[in-house]
Amino acid sequence: MARIDAFLKLGTQQGCSDIHLAVGVPPMLRMHGDLLPIKFRDLRAAELEGYLTEILTRNQAEHFAQGHDLDFSYVSSDGGRFRVNVFRKDTGIGATFRAIPTQVPTLEKLGLPPVVTKLCDFHQGMILVTGSTGTGKSTTLAAMIDHLNTTRRLNIISLEDPIEFVHRSKMSQVIQRELNTHVPSFAEGVRAAMREDPDVILVGELRDAETISMAMTAAETGHLVLGTLHTTGAVKTIDRIIDALPVEEREQTKSFLAQSLLAVVTQVLVKSADGRGRRAICEIMVMTKAIAKLIQSDQTHQIPAQLQMGREHGMQMLDQALLAAIQAKEIDPDDAYNYATEKRLFQKYVTDTSMLPKLDLAAVAANPAAQG
């Protein structure tokens, strides 16, 4: 048993999402969004290096010694599965272990809007799940793959960095390939997948122009493509894709988005009302003729108005979803306030008044009309 497994076991027993190990500080656990130290001494450089050496392969150790970060999956002695990132910082090395549940959660268990399930019924096009790091994008995609695997007879090829949830083939065949283990890059993985008779291709991250271009080609040629981007909204996602590709391809890219982009699901993780967990809250854009026209005419800034009016298509703005979850007493209103765009709408729900903007009494006295 590797010594590091003791920290990982403690973390999973506590129900944390991440275990952080770094030189100069004690091990820390991410509990419901908060980072908390455990009762342990500050880790020394030689000590942490020894812990990590026990779980690295020879190739990984050599790659890290050459100055590169490491991303890989690790299974502990008690069967726990983790996504690992090992890195260097100013005071020494560090590592983050993301706990991966042994069971793939269902879309229903995640509490995602029903439209996400309906999106899985499409046979071709692109669906993007976006959000900042640590907002549960991989979990949502895994739940979508599991739904497809359970309900349809498909050939599903998943390209990941690294492999997180392990899918057992049910009605579908699920082939999981890992970056730098089975394929050299996401772009090469998509190129290879298109020669393997796929129905669905999952691209772990659309991180560069070549990958985006290959994913677009796959979506245009009769495949359902699922992917992620580190963007925080539908408009930013569309603009990011357009800006990522060469200027001479701009019109072609807008045409692709208008015709083949099915939906953008952007999510944040907000503390639950009882403080015992976190829940995904989503902004959802579903492609319509009106949104397609806005994209092609360079008026993406008007898309939010379409989301607000698109409830019959399952669309919603993030603020709308946050307000609904607060009113249903499903999430912590103080945490929701942090994620809200139009914070004024949420002020009456906030319980920690120190979070609210301070009233400038001198300005109000000088201009009483401004108070109203």
Structure summarized in a few sentences:
This protein is α/β, with parallel strands linked by helices and 372 residues long. It has helices at residues 4-13, 45-53, 58-65, 107-110, 114-119, 137-151, 186-193, 209-220, 234-244, 250-260, 289-296, 303-309, 318-327, 333-339, 361-366; strands spanning 18-22, 28-31, 34-37, 70-75, 81-89, 92-100, 125-130, 155-160, 173-178, 200-203, 224-229, 261-271, 278-286.
Characterization of the model:
With 372 residues, this protein is an alpha/beta fold. It contains 15 helices and 13 strands. It has helices at 4-13, 45-53, 58-65, 107-110, 114-119, 137-151, 186-193, 209-220, 234-244, 250-260, 289-296, 303-309, 318-327, 333-339, 361-366, and strands spanning 18-22, 28-31, 34-37, 70-75, 81-89, 92-100, 125-130, 155-160, 173-178, 200-203, 224-229, 261-271, 278-286. The strands form two sheets. The protein has a seven-stranded mixed beta sheet, with helices on both faces.
Number of helices: 15
Which regions have little confidence, pLDDT < 50, spanning 5+ residues?
360-365
Helix-strand topology string: HEEEHHEEEHHEHEEHEHEHHEEHHHHH
**N- to C-terminal separation?**
65 Å
The shape is globular
Major β-sheet, in short? 7 strands, mixed
Estimate the mean pLDDT confidence.
94
Strand percentage? 15-25%
* Alpha-carbon Rg, integer: 22 Å
Pairing-aware structural class of the strands and helices?
Answer: alpha/beta
This entry's quaternary arrangement is single chain
Secondary structure: helix percent: 25-40%
The total beta strand count reads 13
Strands in their spatial order, largest beta sheet: 9-8-10-11-7-12-13
